[in-house]
Amino acid sequence: MEYRFQVNLGGIIDLLSNHTYSSPQVFIRELLQNGVDAIVARSYLDPEYRGEMHIELPAQFGEHPALVFRDNGIGLTEEEIHLFLATIGQTSKRDNDLLQRNGFIGQFGVGLLSCFVVSDEVLVNTRSAKGDAKTIEWCGRADGTYSLAVLDRQMEPGTEVRLLCKKSAEDYFLSETVTRLASHYGSLLPFPINLSDGEGTTVINEARPPWLEQFADAELEREHYLEYGRATFAIEFFDYIPLRSSIGDVAGVAFVLPFSPSLANRKTHRVYLKNMLLSEQTEGLLPDWAFFVKCVVNANDLRPTASRESFYEDAKLAATRIALGQQLRHYLIDLARESPHRLRQLIQLHYLSIKALAVDDEEFFRIFIKWLPFETNMGTMTLTEYIKDHDVIYYVQNLDQFRQTARIAASQSLCVINAAYTYDARLIERVNDVFPEVSIEAIDSNSLTHSFEYLTLDEQDEVAQFIAVANQVLLPFKCAVEIRTFAPAELPALYIAGGDAQFKRSIETTKEVTDTFWSAVLNDVESGLDPDSGAQLCFNYRNSVVYKITKIKDETLLRLSLQMLYVQAILLSHRPLNAREMALLNEGLLGFIEWGVDAFEGWIQ
Amino acid sequence: MSEIIEQEIYDLLTDAFELEEGDEQISMLEAAVRLADGLRDLELQYEIRELLVRACVFGGATDKGLVTFSWCLAQFDQHPGQFSEWAILWKYKWIVGVICNFPQIPKPRIYQMLDDLADRSLRAGYGLRAVHMHRYRAERFWNNREQAIEYFHRMEAEPKDELSNCSVCELDDEVGFSIYRGHDERALELARPLLNGEEKCATVPHRTYANVLLPLLRLGRQHDALAYHRRGYELVAGNKSFLDKIADHLIFLTLTENFTRALEVFERHYPWMEKNHDAFYHFRFSRAAWLMFEILAEHADKSLAEPRLRLPRSFPPFVDEGRYHAVKLAAWFKLRAEELGRRFDRRNENSFFAQTLAETPALKALCAPFAIVESEW
Ligand SMILES: Nc1ncnc2c1ncn2[C@@H]1O[C@H](COP(=O)(O)OP(=O)(O)OP(=O)(O)O)[C@@H](O)[C@H]1O
Ligand SMILES: [Mg+2]
User: Fold this and answer.
1) Regarding the domain delimited by A9-203, which CATH topology (the fold level of the hierarchy) does it fall under?
2) What ranges do the domains of chain A cover?
3) Fold of A369-449
4) Cβ of residue A398 closer than 8 Å to a chain B Cβ
5) Are residues A343 and A334 in contact, defined by beta-carbon separation less than 8 angstroms?
6) What are the tens digits of pLDDT across the range A156-212?
7) A125: which strand partners?
8) Which of these, A70, A63, A58, A73, lies nearest to A103 by C-alpha position?
9) Count of other CB atoms within 10 angstroms of residue B125
10) What is the rounded distance in angstroms from the CA atom of residue A276 to the CA atom of residue A287?
């Protein structure tokens, strides 16, 4: 025996109407969509016919505010009402040859349910344009029941949907709200949408988007596009790029932003599907690197997801993305050829976007690399500028290391690029493709000491005792000792923690607070690190204080001085002291005071 | 003075928020941590470290994330009531989620961590759904199949709560579980809303696309695999915390004989091996590279045997002119994978990793050319 599932209609209606969509206001979108579909369907029957929609309010209906959506579309016969309108999940827009023409937006047979969010009943008067149909009144209710009557009066073919405002939905029946939402969703629709309230009737979608217009000349076109951008987003855009793709049947415009967009402001394009607004947060229509533009586009041949707020991720969308990406790329390349000055301005704002593309696109890289700015310890410059004065490109891959390196490198007249920023290191590593003669070298603070001068053999003998004591004092801090000659002379010592050294340092600091279990875990982690990569303290023999200290014979004073130099070097490297170093500082300070007082008393006596 | 530093911290944080996850963001937050430590302002030190943990875990620096987290947990315990309990437990979950990837952490310590997380969850009034999920992952990591399956089902039996994963992640986990059980078709059915873009969160469907590539090849659905490779690769190509997924894409490209693209992908992501220290990810990537170079070396088209590659100087077998021998690279990466595998097997007290490597050449049975045609869709 076969049975059928029984469905609790009220429950399903509640579920679908209240949970499928992100906000109650989408009922306006759904009603517009159904109107559009009906008009499209009728135009297939009669190509001469001109569609039109009418929204009326506030037509009081008893004491409830009401809202009427009327279209002169295909309408419904009695049979169709039972079959499509009154069957949840059933649609007249699927599995027939009309679908092949790609005309319809509706596809699930649930859109109408969104009306129950704002209205307890949906009243439909309709007359089919096919043959000699009767006018029918249908009334659907949120509990899942409906009634149907054949009317005596004959209306023009089309459909009229009436909603009665339910408690707490009043906002959605206000003239301002309806006008705003209807033009929000429907401003691109290619037939008039009239809106009547107590004040009169207006057409809310008179303006046509610029990509559908013909322009007498380029200047006029430019004006129109930018004006459209201003009207749509209230932004004075830098430039515009018409977009068109036969895959996905896409047309529209990308506006070049006049500022660098923040992360949250990327990918906020206004996207229409079959001229109805789909979303303002659509992802996936443009390649990820293209965040220098803000688009308005309409796609006729992409699939929406069930929530109708983004596109279905399929091969067609992927191909559309590639096609649109190509157009943006061509725009940039043309700009580079034809107006380098404009390009320079654009790069100032959008170098990140351009770097993102250049990193993965060899041809683009070749054209653009010379324009792209890089941060160095001697100011921001392009690679062309850098190469003019230097044969070797030095770059540092990490912000901390750059900070540690920058100052010292500058005093060695070494120009170092800060390649900690996204894409920069990868771009630099490809530089030889375009500038084969330069060599490229990644450095960190450890490699800086390579350019420091060694001491002469005699000098080395003189500092031997100093080095021995220093090694001893700094042993507990896992810090090796060096002495060299380097600029600037005012700097007594340089604390260098490249590679794993900085990480080890933070493990040490953390172990000061963790319990035995987690300290054991941290020891495990540390055991995986390179044992040779400790920190280093490099004294500057050119510094007069260091020079004097190397001559000290009194071991207490020597120890105290070394401790203080160590602590000072850490502080100069902008690292906080850990607990042991703090103790060292206190001890050293007190030691010095004591030593000073003793010396002073000795001197008075 | 301290106001100036606070301003500097604030600027660093503002900049960090503007960045995608990755080293740049991590180094900004590290700088902010150093400044806050200098101020010795506990609240600030804690808050910034919370951000840093997140940045590290999602930016491919789990070792740093672990260290930073342990600092937070210690302060959380030492200052009862001062910091959000949910927030620390949530981060704890991230940490146990990656802890198995550290071969230097012994198994008992991992179990102890899971027990601790379970205790803390219960004491805070949450259920064990999240913990069971991680027990499942740990058991799966050392291929304790029966236990793993049992924990997955126990996880399903627990009610969802604020500690359990978001529904999108959970769906992805279910997909992963089905693949683990060998139910490729069911996995793909489950994955549908993830793959077609209807459901997403921060790391899904990024991982999902990579996870379904092999199942699709096994089912002979190359065309779908290709589409998901396209979309999925774009999603993971910019974040080194997805190095393991890059390995999956590499294998896919190799098995469909899209060698040019495979080599591009390899070339582009090898440098991540030097930036992401996760030993498990290294294992996965090395294994994929091994398979790729071996297939290239054995290919009938002899021109493939000497690929031209642009690799950093630090690549141990680096050669100046960039002309490499596939045979040699295959051997090098095999050795690397074996070394790493041994470390894991020693810790796991079995030979699962060795076995995985031994079975890797069998993937060649799936080899079937299926070319990417740029213009055709
Ligand atoms: N204005 C209208 N004119 C003619 N038929 C309509 C109109 N509105 C609704 N219908 C009929 O009612 C059916 C159900 O409409 P509904 O909006 O619920 O679903 P749909 O448009 O088919 O799909 P979707 O759920 O994607 O919107 C439609 O398929 C159509 O046959
Ligand atoms: Mg509809």
Assistant:
1) Heat Shock Protein 90 (3.30.565)
2) 9-203, 210-343, 369-449, 452-498+534-602
3) Rossmann fold (3.40.50)
4) yes
5) no
6) 999 999 999 888 888 888 888 999 999 999 999 999 999 998 788 999 998 889 999
7) A137, A160
8) A73
9) 11
10) 23
A interface mutation test: which of B21, B33, B34 has the most A CBs within 10 A? B34
**Between B24, B197, B279, which is nearest A305 by CB?**
B197
In CATH terms, is domain A210-343 a member of 2.40.370.10?
no
Q: What are phi and psi of A35, to 5 degrees?
A: -60, -45
pLDDT at A96 (0 to 100): 55
Asked if A394 and A417 touch (Cβ cutoff 8 Å), the reply is: yes
Chain A nearest CA to B376, separation (Å): 9
Indicate if the pLDDT at residue A95 is higher than 70: no
Please report where in the chains the tokens 């043309």 appear, as a residue.
A334
Chain B contacts in chain A segment 344-363 (CB below 8 A): 360
Per-residue pLDDT, B376: 45
> In which domain, by residue range, is B245 found?
237-377
Residues of chain B with pLDDT under 50: 375-377
Q: Tell me how far the alpha carbon of residue B200 lies from the centroid of ligand 2, in angstroms.
A: 25
Q: Number of folded domains in chain B?
A: 2
* C-beta separation of A377 from A406 below 8 A: yes
Q: Note whether A440 contacts B: Cβ–Cβ < 8 A.
A: no
Domain annotation covers residue B21: yes
**Among residues B36, B65, B82, which one ends one of the domains?**
B82
Taking only the tens place, the pLDDT of each residue in A31-81 is 999 999 999 999 988 989 999 999 998 656 567 788 999 999 999 999 999
Chain B residues whose beta carbon lies within 8 Å of the beta carbon of residue A310 = 197
**Cβ count within 10 A of residue A377:** 20
pLDDT of residue B125: 93
pLDDT score recorded for residue B377:
41
**B114 assigned to some structural domain:** no
Closest partner CB to B31 (pick from A314, A400, A506) = A400
Among B53, B82, B111, the domain boundary falls at B82
Q: What is the mean pLDDT of chain A?
A: 89
Residue B329 resides in a domain: yes
Chain A environment of B24 (Cβ under 8 Å): 399, 420-422
Is B64 in CB contact (< 8 Å) with chain A? Answer: yes
ipTM at complex level: 0.95
Q: List, as one string, the DSSP characters of B268-329.
A: HHHHHHHH---HHHHHHHHHHHHHHHHHHHH-S-GGGGS-B----TTSTT--TT-B--HHHH
CA dihedral A443, A446, A450, A453 (to 10 degrees): 140
CATH superfamily, with its number, for domain A452-498+534-602: Heat shock protein 90, C-terminal domain (1.20.120.790)
Q: Mutate which of A91, A163, A191 to test ligand 1's pocket (most atoms within 8 Å of Cβ)?
A: A91
Examine domains A210-343 and A369-449 and report if their fold is the same.
no
The B residues from 172 to 191 touching A (CB cutoff 8 Å) are: none
Ligand 1 atom nearest to CA at A104: 21
Task: Work out whether the CA dihedral A37, A247, A280, A293 comes out positive or negative.
Answer: negative
Task: Tell me, yes or no, if A260 comes closer than 8 A to chain B by beta carbon.
Answer: no
B150: in domain: no
| Residue in A with minimal Cα distance to B112 | A517
Are A312 and B310 in contact (CB < 8 Å)?
Answer: no
Among B20, B34, B279, select the one facing A574 at the smallest CB separation: B34
